[in-house]
Amino acid sequence: MIELRFNALKSNGQSIVGTISAPSYSAGKKKIQELVDKHGLKTKSIEKKSTFLYKVRKGNEKPITGEQKAFNKQEVVQALTKLGYQVVSVNKKLFEFNMKPPTQEIVSFVKISAELLEQKLPFSEIMTLLTNDLENKALKETLKQINNELKKGADSEAVYLKYESVFGKFTAYMLGLASKSGNMTEIYRATAKFLERQQEFKKNLRSALITPIITLFILFLAVLFYVGYIFPETAKLFLKFDIPLPPMTAATLDFSDFILSNPVLLTVVMFGPLIVFWRFSKTDKGKMFIDKHMMKIPIMGSLIHKTNIEVFCRVFYTLYSGSADSIEPIRIAAEATGNRYFESQIKNVSIPLMISKGVGLTDALEASGIFTPTAISRFHSGEETGTIKNTAKQLANYYESETVFRLKNVIEMIQVFIAMVIMVVMIGLTLVSAETATINPKPPVM
User: Fold this and answer.
1) CB of 327 within 8 A of CB of 355?
2) Is residue 446 pLDDT above 60, yes or no?
3) Are 76 and 52 in contact (CB under 8 A)?
4) pLDDT tens by residue, 389-428
5) What is the rounded CA–CA span in Å between residue 175 and residue 47?
6) Rounded Cα–Cα distance for residues 158 and 173 (Å)
7) Which terminal CB of the chain, N or C, has fewer other CB atoms within 10 Å?
8) Cβ atoms 223, 429 nearer than 8 A
9) 158-171: b (≥16 Cβ within 10 Å) or e
10) pTM score of the predicted model
């Protein structure tokens, strides 16, 4: 996210200054234009908050260098002068790379904050400690700016959401909510747990799906190179001397000739569907389609589905405070899953039923069609006994235990499958090579 400051004029000549946050300069400029058109203003100037490199000194002391974000050079000069420094130079940083901090760094920050909050340490002190101790420059600078804005009395939710590109939408919302809630420690602890589970699941999913796919693809390319280039060099020597080829050798050579004769067709067949699928996955419709059917694929689908329910229940448990205030926790919990289809069913089916028709929580969730019978049964029991909050926590813990255990078994099973595929391919190549080695040339005719 970037910050823009605009200066506009009213029809009576009065000057108005405002700031907005946006993901890009063009998006921010568009927002400003909409505000200007809506209120009948005339834009005078638009400035982007940038990083300035400065060099200052006090008296005869050694010069000090540093960085400061500001809308223009003059602001930096004035701020440093007020602090009693003699400004040597101030220059705008030419290249600004706003790299997102690694997920592990964010998890570490939230987890340590939760632990320090449990020890009753004031939040302002926690921010100061972590800002000074963090090594990741992007996260350190972000926390520094957040801390400065919070000290000035800015709304915590608005401040954190301004940096959602750093933390992620859900994490930014939760941390902003925690700062103005009466349950800060619990929200930080739950957010840390959510981020850890999310990171762990992605790591396991990568081990279960992505790594095997890459392994098989590399194996396929290796076999293609062998069949298309190495094998023909040997086999065609026999044809040159009019030596008949055994069945497997002949079939492999025919396949090799087909590959070499149709490189364009082979490339289109190999990469065409992947490119089409990749482009489709970037569209809103594609994301919805993938998220919906990801929960239906064999073996892994069930785990992904139950993990989504676990995340929903964990976030719902953290935010839910009573039956009269259940809509917002449900909406946020649905967004936290990161699954477009799951979120859509909650927002477009469950929530409208609760608002317009007064349907109970359990019936509304059941109508969405995305919860397992076990989850619905537990929610129904919790709703009847008035323990819906604890029921959500129990469900989250139950599905966490189940998915972690089953995912380990799935990863082991997939690894065995990959090993068997590699073994079969290697045996096939060995048999073809061995058969080629048994070819005997015809004795010369006297």
Assistant:
1) yes
2) no
3) yes
4) 889 989 988 998 888 888 788 778 877 888 888 888 888 8
5) 29
6) 9
7) C
8) yes
9) ebbbbbbebbbebb
10) 0.68
